[in-house]
């Protein structure tokens, strides 16, 4: 087994991109109101290319899979469909979105959390044939679903390598929510599930999947996870005989920058490419390598544009009030992301303590900004741009304080601006919440 390579961070992801003309931002604000989101299609495509280039020397098939949970706006999905990549889905409703956007179930790897019979029936009927199981009960449910629907399904086992991960969110801790252990002989262990899959005619064992975390800061955890996976596979083959390895999915974790240095995809691939080639040799077959990504692919494609509606000086601090709140940027409250923020026009660095606050009646509605933010010149009427907000912010938004959902715009690859989600009116929000709907008794 090759020794893991320790790699320094080679560059900082540049969240000053995409570049938008100030006048265009103001024109959108005047026509459609603020706050609004603006997506750049070119950045979405660039991010796919960066991952593919990082792994182009892998000696076998390689696929990028977009984790649709990060941002399921149809314009984003359609962009990635046209790139020919795979999609990581965890809910049958996500499959509906993908299919409506022209995607194919052949390009889906389905990783359920609930693993119910009904869910598996639904996605199998929808054409999905590559499914990841994460529990023994879920595996039994998949077997039941295939017996009802018919057809053969390729199955991966989601394992928890239980390695140390330096990351903002860690999913590989001992006794965690996701995956099954590589050791042990209980039903909910990798070996027991592997045996069950191999003896079930309607299932075809396809390989293994793991997901170590989000915003991973040190790529060496992948080396340790792959080493433990190889050891398990070699031991399992001694126990149950030779079985093929067609797919290894190493999950996501590629970080985007929220104000600090982070590794780029090339740092991750440089750490494990030699090791992956060694695995292919020891397994006796060239497996397909899948790298998933939600945050990396979508985050820095999008900005949030808000307007300054009030300014207050309190002691040495300058409080700048926006017409956006954490209902638009949930990660700002949940994870305290330090978004690069800039006042438009003329934003500059300032030595005055500037506190950027939202319009919500909640003490948590204070935005954490990065050291690269330019808040000088903040005055009522100017715009404020948050960069790197394309992952999770839109999908986690809420109508707190009866706030309708904002417009989402996209600048396409030809530079044309278009509305990709219409802003909601307060009347529509009222109707969605029950509004004037007639009251009717419900029989139970």
Would you give an account of this structure?
About 30% of the residues lie in helices and about 25% in strands. The protein has about 450 residues and is an alpha/beta fold. The strands form three sheets. Strands 1, 13, 14, 15, 16, 17, 18, 19 and 20 form a nine-stranded mixed β-sheet that branches. Helix 5 (about 115-125) links the parallel strand 4 (about 110) and strand 5 (about 130-135). Helix 2 (about 40-55) crosses helix 9, helix 5 (about 115-125) crosses helix 6 and helix 8 (about 220-240) runs parallel beside helix 9 (about 265-285). It is globular, with a radius of gyration of 24 Å. The N and C termini lie far apart (about 60 Å). Mean pLDDT is about 90; it is low at about 1-10.
Number of strands: 20
The DSSP helix count reads: 12
Q: In CATH, what is the class of the largest domain?
A: Alpha Beta
In CATH terms, the superfamily of the largest domain is Alanine racemase
Strand content: 15-25%
What value does the average pLDDT take?
A: 90
The description of the largest β-sheet is:
9 strands, mixed
General shape: globular
Low-confidence stretches: 1-8
**Classification by helices and strands:** alpha/beta
Helix content: 25-40%
Q: What is the fold named in CATH at topology level of the largest domain?
A: TIM Barrel
| Radius of gyration, CA atoms, in whole angstroms | 24 Å
Number of domains: 2
Oligomer: single chain
Examine the secondary-structure arrangement and name the CATH architecture of the largest domain: Alpha-Beta Barrel
How far apart the termini lie comes to 61 Å
